[in-house]
Specification:
four-stranded antiparallel β-sheet; 0% helix; single chain; mainly beta; 115 residues; 11 strands
């Protein structure tokens, strides 16, 4: 099993930046891909960005060019650098890890972007 704890959310004005962190503990050696998802009330959770063990990344079209996902395997931590934030980026952001085909989730961190 792996435990995930997000941090770094908050309130920011449109055009501003935030960096989210996801600290992993437990069986981190079994983790393949890690990802960030987000969810707003009444909507399905959506994939924001994913990074594999080899460092391959992929992004939702809505965040390409503005968000950057990265991971520090030595620190068992994943990051999401969010720049040029827009009000529509407001959501609860969740850290996700895949272990042997099973998904693990963090508790989520709120990001609010004011116009």
């Amino acid at each position: 099993q792996v435990q995930l704890v997000e941090s770094g959310g908050g309130l920011v004005q449109a055009g501003g930046s935030l960096r989210l962190s996801c600290a992993a503990s437990g069986s981190t050696f079994s983790v393949s891909a890690m990802a960030w998802y987000r969810q707003t009330p009444g909507k399905q959770r959506e994939l924001v960005a994913v990074i594999t063990n080899s460092g391959t990344t992929n992004y939702a079209d809505s965040v390409k060019g503005r968000f950057t996902i990265s991971r520090d395997n030595g620190k068992n931590t994943m990051y999401l650098q969010m720049n040029s934030l827009k009000p529509e980026d407001t959501a609860v952001y969740y850290c996700n890890a895949v272990l042997n085909g099973v998904h693990a989730w963090g508790q989520g961190t709120q990001v609010t972007v004011s116009s």
